[in-house]
Amino acid sequence: MNPTKTGLLGGTFNPVHRGHIDLGLKIQAAFGLDRILYILSARPPHKKRQAMPAAELRLAMLEAALRPHPRLVPCDLELRRRGDSWTIDTIRELKAASPLERFYFITGSEGFLKIRTWKDYRRVLREVYFIIVLRRSGHRARVEHMLREEGIPFGREHDDPRPPPAAFLHTYTSDYLELSATDIRKKRSHGQDISPYVEQNVQKIMEEIKLYEEG
Prior knowledge:
39% of the residues lie in helices and 17% in strands. By secondary structure, the chain is α/β, with parallel strands linked by helices. It has a seven-stranded parallel β-sheet, with helices on both faces.
């Protein structure tokens, strides 16, 4: 029996938008993942100075957005755990709970190029597979260089991979490639229409509590 293949996609989801969903659906199909956990970063250490809605509210929007997609699963593990939301702690907790599961950590190339700022980043690299989403063509050479420096084998194949560490570089194209949560928040604060960018049930939550509205 083959092990369950689970993707891990973390973020503040402030707010979750169509780009997050599109990415998950395409990665799940490309790598044959059984599911992708959307791990809500409840208390991100690198964004302590950034005001954001309560984790419970961001989770409610995430749950609403993912409801139509059974293989995309909201995860509140970091919300339930006290303290800062460190990636290494989350990975260890998931692996301890499901030792036979095969985990694939999904990250954009922009984020991966900053991985050396993460807590225990070398351990993170060696605990799970990495799917590095190349959103900029110029990032491939830089990502490959960093992987070589860290001694992480990489390629484009993802069938029956060797045990971690290993990384897979995935080229990603999407109509939502340039979409950002920051832009959505700005549009809301200026009273602009955001319906092309977020799911209807997510927009309804925002409107009910006047989330991101100016004043």
